[in-house]
Amino acid sequence: LAKTTQPISMDSYEGQEVNITCSHNNIATNDYITWYQQFPSQGPRFIIQGYKTKVTNEVASLFIPADRKSSTLSLPRVSLSDTAVYYCLVGDNTGFQKLVFGTGTRLLVSP
Amino acid sequence: DTGVSQDPRHKITKRGQNVTFRCDPISEHNRLYWYRQTLGQGPEFLTYFQNEAQLEKSRLLSDRFSAERPKGSFSTLEIQRTEQGDSAMYLCASSTGGSGGVGEQFFGPGTRLTVL
Fold first, then answer.
1. Is the pLDDT of residue B74 over 70?
2. Fewer beta carbons below 10 Å: N end or C end of chain B?
3. Which residues of A touch B106 (CB under 8 A)?
């Protein structure tokens, strides 16, 4: 079971870059790292997924070091609407029983 | 709106009653998932279908819970003899399953169950 550890909460201001780090020391060879965002009273929403090195899309970047024991979600120039809970998931596309969302990181963006 | 719909959005029931929830996934998605989420916690995996086949069930899922996906289209989740501990948000998600990882699952708005 690939357990993940994230900060419980983070605070930021509008326009700043936010980096959320996730530890996953026992990640398996077939596992990918996937990040989701969740607003209150809504289902989670996919942000980004990667296996190694760096992945970038229109909303975020994901940095994964060579040992893959951690990963960092980077949100450039956050806005108030980025206030949400962010979940780091580790797994492959089978064996969903081992999928653990945990409590996530509650990001609060202030003006 | 992700394209995944769930019905009802809210359900209040008395302990001991049976309840059934429905999920309509994105039509071309062959994978469908059910999760449960309680306040302050992340979603907890319940079960997963690929087309009409139920391929995984969480060990946490008691025999009071049953899910179906007839013809690989919509899915239903039934809880028999509800208990107060079943009070939660029940989330449905669907995906194409082409990714190597968990991938992009599209979540519905959820059904909030309150057991009195």
1. yes
2. N
3. 46
Phi, psi at residue B86, to the nearest 5°?
A: -80, -10
Q: What is the pLDDT of residue B2?
A: 84
Query: What is chain A's percent helix, strand, coil content, to nearest 5?
Result: 5, 50, 45
Residue B71: band (very low, low, confident or very high) from pLDDT cuts 50, 70, 90: confident
Residues forming a β-bridge with A53:
A64
Among all chains, which residue has been given the structure tokens 């090195």?
A53
Report whether pLDDT(A50) > 60.
yes
Tokens of A85: 């809970």
Is the CB of B101 less than 8 angstroms away from the CB of A51? yes
**What tens digit of pLDDT does each residue of B41-58 get?**
999 999 999 999 998 888
The Cα–Cα gap between B22 and B44 comes to 18
* Cα–Cα distance, A19 to B6 (Å, whole number): 33
Residue A39, by phi and psi: left (phi above 0), alpha (psi -120 to 50) or beta? beta
Beta bridge partners of B37: B89
Interface of A with B in 70-99 (CB under 8 A): 85, 87, 89, 91-93, 95-97, 99
